[in-house]
């Protein structure tokens, strides 16, 4: 990185911070709702961008393109099919959450089941975010940032030292962001980082096609479409290690519904909207963005395969492509966007962790008389404590054996499927069973853990396909045969904001579903992969 790159990098970060600070100056961040939910003031575009940036990290930018380098367009399932679940978020889940006026996913579980089940789910979320998600985001993000921009050479240190420095800086900046401005500050920052990531990612794709065509975009596009058509097939084989095609309609769909509709760090951003209408608008923005994600999270990997051939370590494919096509003067700008992507994912999960602990444990258990301002103050203290722990833990990820990262990623499977079942039964059944919820959680954790030992070669998406249906059956049986509460009064709870739906939510959702289906037709043996 030259001097101009460093100046432009810092300038972008400072500009985005000042913009976000200006937009959030009127929000009372000393109040718990202001700190944790941005005062429920976010509009649709801000909701959409902050959800996108919470989800999107450098691990996806490099990891998914790396998988696409190895396996082709079937990797797009992680992006494109997510749009189906996001439509369900707007159509089904958000109207329910807003109707009951909940602050967290666990609040809804408490309403429909009991406090103990609520706290079990909160602990699982908190444990996953602190042990798995945040350290991995910081470490892998720092590792990739170093690979992309050669920080170790610039600082004259070892690779490990550079990664520790980068992860520490990102962590400290993220903690400061959340401490100073709460959710609203990072949400407004994400609005600009999201635009930058979309433009930067698409730029790499376009420059890659130009390089593939030896300075001709259309020649590069022709080579991309004709050189290796087998790489353009989005339908994975039955035994594919990436995404077997039957799981698109089962395990992948169930996983997407969990992640996009019941995951606290995602849903919290939608709950911060000023109305249901704005939350639904934000969700639809995310839906279109996830479909477009294949153009900069998957296609560059296939371009790299066409440019460099096989034999490259897949996680090096995207950094190699960036180094090949990105002009030196743009390094700082692209670096700022990548930095923002890492920080946004880290802060998004940190905010969710602090919110869950403060609202589900501090207020009801530790300090039952706490005022809203005391809860917000406790949240700030927790922001520093948890952030500091994660910054210390992040470099330790390097000590784990190779391959454990994939196991950590699959850890969510211990509770994602039963949580989705618990939410769905809570939506539609007048009777629920707190005992059934606990039995379902225990059953799933035991059976899923055993599956990793007894049938380790079976793709986990196949396992989820079966276990979710069994979880749903167990919970429904208990709810019907052994309910633990009287018929639920669905009209008992009051919303906290306007819950008038967006008038265009139906047809926009249908349009997204049509585009998803069309994408799978285009990237199939029927069209491009022939």
From TrEMBL:
InterPro entries, per the entry: Na/Glc_symporter_sf, Na/solute_symporter
PROSITE patterns cross-referenced by the UniProt entry: NA_SOLUT_SYMP_3
Transmembrane domains' residue ranges: 6-22, 34-56, 76-94, 120-145, 157-180, 192-212, 242-261, 282-308, 328-357, 378-400, 412-429, 436-455, 461-478, 505-528
Keywords linked to the UniProt accession: Membrane, Transmembrane, Transmembrane helix
Main subcellular location of this protein, as a coarse class: membrane
Membrane topology designation: Multi-pass membrane protein
Compartments where found: Membrane
Pfam family, one: SSF
Top-level taxon of origin: Bacteria
Family the UniProt entry places it in: Belongs to the sodium:solute symporter (SSF) (TC 2.A.21) family.
Protein name: Solute:sodium symporter family transporter
């Amino acid at each position: 990185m030259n001097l101009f790159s460093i100046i432009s990098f810092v300038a972008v970060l400072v500009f985005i911070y000042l913009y976000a600070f200006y937009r959030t100056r009127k929000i009372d961040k000393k109040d718990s709702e202001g700190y944790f939910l941005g005062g429920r003031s976010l509009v649709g575009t801000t909701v959409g961008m902050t959800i996108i940036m919470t989800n999107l990290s450098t691990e996806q930018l490099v990891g998914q393109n790396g998988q696409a380098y190895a396996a082709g367009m079937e990797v797009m399932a992680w992006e494109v099919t997510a749009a189906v679940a996001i439509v369900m978020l707007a159509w089904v889940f958000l109207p329910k959450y807003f109707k009951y006026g909940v602050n967290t996913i666990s609040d809804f579980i408490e309403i429909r089941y009991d406090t103990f089940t609520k706290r079990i789910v909160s602990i699982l979320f908190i444990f996953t975010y602190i042990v798995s998600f945040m350290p991995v985001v910081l470490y892998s993000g720092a590792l990739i940032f170093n690979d992309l921009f050669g920080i170790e050479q610039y600082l004259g240190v070892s690779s490990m030292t550079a990664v520790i420095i980068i992860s520490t800086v990102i962590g400290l900046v993220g903690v400061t962001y959340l401490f100073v401005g709460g959710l609203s500050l990072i949400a407004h920052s994400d609005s600009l980082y999201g635009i930058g990531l979309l433009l930067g990612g698409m730029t790499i794709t376009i420059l890659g096609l130009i390089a593939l065509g030896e300075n001709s975009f259309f020649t590069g596009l022709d080579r991309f479409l004709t050189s290796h058509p087998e790489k353009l097939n989005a339908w994975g084989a039955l035994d594919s290690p990436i995404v077997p095609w039957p799981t698109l309609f089962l395990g992948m769909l169930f996983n997407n519904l969990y992640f996009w509709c019941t995951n606290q760090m995602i849903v919290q951003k939608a709950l911060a909207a000023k109305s249901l209408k704005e939350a639904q608008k934000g969700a639809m923005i995310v839906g279109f963005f996830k479909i477009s994600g294949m153009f900069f999270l998957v296609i560059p990997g296939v371009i790299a395969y066409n440019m460099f051939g096989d034999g490259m370590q897949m996680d090096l494919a995207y950094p190699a492509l960036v180094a090949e096509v990105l002009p030196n003067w743009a390094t700082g700008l692209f670096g700022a966007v990548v930095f923002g992507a890492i920080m946004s994912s880290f802060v998004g999960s940190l905010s969710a962790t602090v919110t869950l602990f403060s609202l589900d444990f501090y207020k009801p258990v530790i300090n039952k008389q706490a005022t809203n301002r005391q809860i917000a103050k406790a949240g700030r203290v927790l922001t520093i404590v948890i952030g500091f722990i994660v910054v210390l833990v992040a470099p330790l990820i390097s000590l784990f054996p190779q391959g454990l990262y994939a196991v950590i990623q699959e850890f969510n499977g211990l509770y994602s499927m039963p949580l989705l079942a618990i939410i769905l039964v809570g939506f539609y059944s007048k009777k629920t069973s707190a005992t059934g919820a606990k039995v379902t959680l225990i059953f799933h954790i035991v059976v899923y853990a055993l599956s990793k030992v007894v049938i380790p070669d079976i793709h986990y998406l196949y396992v989820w396909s079966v276990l979710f249906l069994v979880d749903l059956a167990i919970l429904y049986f208990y709810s019907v045969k052994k309910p633990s509460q009287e018929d639920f009064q669905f009209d008992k709870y009051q919303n906290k904001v306007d819950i008038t739906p967006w008038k265009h939510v139906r047809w926009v959702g249908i349009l997204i579903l049509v585009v998803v289906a069309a994408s799978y037709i285009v990237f199939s043996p029927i069209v491009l992969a022939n």
